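Q: Fold this one first, please.
A: Sequence and structure below.
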Amino acid sequence: MRTRGFKQENIIFRILSKSKVFTILGLILILLIVFPLIRKMNQKRILDREISELNQEIERIDKKNGDLKDMLDYLNSDGFIEKEGRLNLDLKKQGEKVVVVKDKNSQVEEETNTVFNIPGLDKNNEQIKTNPQKWQDYFFKLEL
């Protein structure tokens, strides 16, 4: 019985010890290890790239958030409220005297006074001209 077990081990050892068979088995084993490893490395590289892009976006949003916070602090400040009250609401401090100086040569146009200067807010007051009308006014309108 011992001889049979010894012969079986001897046969397996002989097969594995032959250089061609052992080399082929080794290459197959290496390939089975390397391909999944390469796939995982590519996935890691893609995830690292996404993480760096997300970190850049976080930094950009944090900067924008800081800028908005600074703007909000300024808009809530007493200086801004006083300035807007003077400019847009014609308010004055107690004991102040207001002097208005008008120039005879300048034309006074009424504008909508708002807290914020929003472009396009006063579109109802202006006539929208087409491009040919603008060219016609440019070349043929006489200004005295």
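Q: Good. Now the second chain.
A: Here it is, same layout.
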Amino acid sequence: MNVLALRRWRDLDAAERDRIMARATAGILDPKLLASISEIYADVAARGDQAVADATARFDRVTIAPDDLLVSQAAIDEAHESIEPRLLDAIRVGIAQVRAFNEAQLEAMPDWRRETRPGVVVGERHHPIPSAGLFVPCGKGSFPSVLVMIGTPAVVAGVPEITVVVPPLPGTDRVDPGVLATAKELGIARIVRANGPAGVAAVVLGTQTIGRVSKIVGPGSPAVTAAQILAQLHGVGTNMLCGPSESLVLADDSVDVVRLTADLLNEAEHGADSAALLVTDSMVVVEAVDAEMAKQVAALPEPRASYARSALSNLGGAFLFDTMDEATAFAGDYAPEHMQIATRDPEATLARLTYAGEVLLGQDSPVSAANFTIGVPATLPTGGFARINGGVTSRTFMTTASIARLTEDGLRSLAAPTLALADHEGFPAHANAIRIRGMG
């Protein structure tokens, strides 16, 4: 094979299967990494803004004064005015599409109430969380699209206080103008430029100039993801687990090889720790894609070409199964961040699929469009967490309170079973709350 690592799933031993399924998660959960991030938290807790500035100087090699961690409104306005119109138009299209998706989602989850038995009414009430932190990466590239994808849902949800954390551009003290322009378009004014883990710790703990948030989300390096995991120890929520990029294309022998190859490279070019998988029952497809991949990878600049080669060999590559049913079952078990179904009947394949953070149906639905402009969430769980979690949407920034109202007759109808359970479990005050009302 030229670029793709070829793995016949039936021939892999248990250790290799476990490694493939774990992908980069092992690095994120490494005890040494978590310990080092804990030290950053402790330093930020003790020294606040100065600790964040020192971490930025140490890890990012950028000097920023403690009282300059927050980007000024003038810098935001200047970036918005200076970026090329083509990019600003693209940002606006992305925001509009993501807004449409999230507004539709909120319309589909209204507050509700229902009478479940005479005199017993239950329901739910939704409300935005009080504050949110949004991490936007910078290092392997500039990512205004990430702020589009996670900032728009927070705005649509109605979160009153939003803080963006973004590392400065490598070798400078400036933030990517595209990110600042996106913030301006969304009406977000609080932007922290800082080292990733230290910036996350700052919004989790609060410092002299940076307010504490109630939830932090956003993709990043293993260190940033580890910092978000540790946020939960400080009472701040997160959306598990947004680690290195991963994609899976489920394909049969009807596929257009050139387009399939291009779509595989979408997430492969993100980083050496990414995983890009071709899952199929056709060796003919594997060989054709490998030949085409050699051409398309050769056309990529560095370091993207090297990233892609790693993503298609270390944790990714071609995974060959005896049947498409077996291939589809594996795809669901793998629960990838991004999945594209490139089969004769994508809807029929979808019906047999279990888990994925995102499912794109057919070869006219590439990952690149989903990452930027379709409007579906592109900040998605990695490492198999799609089995229990979904992407960042307005729902991510909402709380749900259950509501109940009983009439006297409604309570009376529930008195006997309530007393039976209270007596059995040894809670006399629970039982008294019923008996004191003359019931039971």
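Q: Anything worth noting on the second one?
A: The chain has three domains: 6-23+244-375, 31-238, 407-435.
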